[in-house]
Design goal:
With about 375 residues, the protein is an alpha+beta fold. It is built from 9 helices and 21 strands. α1 runs parallel beside α9. The protein is elongated and about 65 Å long. This is NAD(P)/FAD-dependent oxidoreductase. It comes from Microvirga terricola. InterPro entries: FAD-dep_OxRdtase, FAD/NAD-bd_sf. Keywords: FAD, Flavoprotein, Oxidoreductase. Belongs to the L2HGDH family.
């Protein structure tokens, strides 16, 4: 097949690579001038284990399967990563019940390396913590997400695929059982293809609405949830990732480490109406309060604004988190068309598994 993948984020690149390795002619159309300039460049770079998500959900399946695939890919392609593990903390009885529920969910999802820890056991691992209990996930890790995307791009191009930059897709028109993609930019063109995969992230709904014959009522609403991150000055106080019990809309203001050991905190959840990538320094006040519940030793003045991302959510405040939405011919009836909606966390971890799923749905 001649295949067009829209979006050169981690999921788009993974899908394009999977199809190119199967022998298809693949072009990735990217609206910006480089890979991973959207959601993929503004996350916590965590490899998630998969214990948060309902069993049988796409999130649970793709996170667990994708995590195993991702560690193998990192090893085979020399992508920097570290399986450092993480602790999910309880600081009261209500949170303790919550982490026990996460533990049970993780076992149901076939997540390896989970163990419930007493306060003493958690403190033996991380002496600076204050908690009443913790859940240890030894399979959680961190990754250099840009190196991952470069490796995916390398495999794609080695298999004959290519990426067209500054190539926004403005319209997708049916041409019998195939498609014509109207691509804008400096040199507008009409590209005939057999299949189209919409992996445009925050722009996925716009692309779907510009797809001829795709029922508009099938396009889910886009809800924007901004996540702010703050860097932390000073010597690292922890060797594991540290997560509080989850909160509405996210996993709580947690501590992650980069591959150099630098600590950063976030993301929080800030519901917004339009894309905005400024970090308000005043939000540090709420970060201090959240963090000191489990790390009272956080020094005054240690937090500095770092960066932020925007999650492409399908549900809003107070609503149950939506599953990944993969709209393929089996769902909408149009041959050779796949729309990917709401691919937020754990999208990076799930990317290689989502790619295999898309290829199978296309019969590729």
């Amino acid at each position: 097949m001649d295949v067009l993948v829209i979006g050169a984020g981690v999921v788009g690149l993974a899908v394009a690579r999977a199809l190119a390795l199967r022998g298809h002619a693949v072009i990735v159309a990217e609206a910006t001038g480089g890979i991973g300039n959207g959601v993929s460049s503004r996350n916590s770079e965590v490899i998630h284990a998969g214990m948060y998500y309902p069993t049988q959900s796409l999130r649970a399946h793709h996170c667990v399967t994708g995590r195993r695939m991702l560690y193998a890919f990192c090893e085979s392609h020399g992508v920097p990563h570290a399986k450092c593990g993480k602790l999910i903390l309880a600081t009261n009885e209500r949170e303790q019940a919550k982490i026990e529920s996460i533990y049970t969910q993780g076992l149901s999802n076939c997540v390896e390396g989970l163990s419930l820890l007493t306060e003493a056991a958690a403190n033996a691992l991380e002496p600076n913590l204050v908690c009443t209990a913790a859940l240890l996930s030894s399979e959680t890790g961190i990754i250099d997400s840009h190196a991952l995307m470069l490796a995916l791009q390398g495999d794609l191009e080695a298999a004959g695929g290519l990426i067209a930059f500054h190539a926004p897709v403005e319209r997708i028109v049916q041409a019998g059982t195939a498609w014509e993609a109207h691509v804008g930019g400096a040199e507008p063109t009409v590209l005939p293809v057999d299949a189209v995969i919409n992996a445009a992230g925050l722009g996925a709904q716009v692309v779907a609405r510009a797809t001829e014959g795709y029922a508009q009522e099938r396009v889910p609403r886009l809800v924007l949830a901004k996540g702010n991150y703050f860097g932390c000055l000073g010597k690292p106080a922890f060797s594991h990732l540290i997560y509080p019990a989850p909160v509405d809309g996210g996993l709580g203001t947690h501590l992650t480490l980069d591959l150099n050991g630098r600590m950063r905190f976030g993301p929080d959840v800030e519901w917004i109406e339009r894309e905005d990538y400024t970090v308000d320094p005043q939000r540090a006040e709420s970060f201090y309060a959240s963090i000191r519940r489990y790390w009272p030793g956080l020094p005054d003045g240690a937090l500095t604004p770092d960066y932020c991302g925007v999650r492409p959510k399908l549900t809003g405040p107070g609503e149950p988190a939506a599953d990944f939405c993969i709209e393929s011919p089996a769902e909408h009836g149009l041959p050779g068309l796949v729309h990917l909606f709401g691919i937020e966390s754990p999208g990076l971890t799930s990317s290689l598994s989502i790619a295999e799923d898309v290829a199978e749905r296309l019969g590729a």
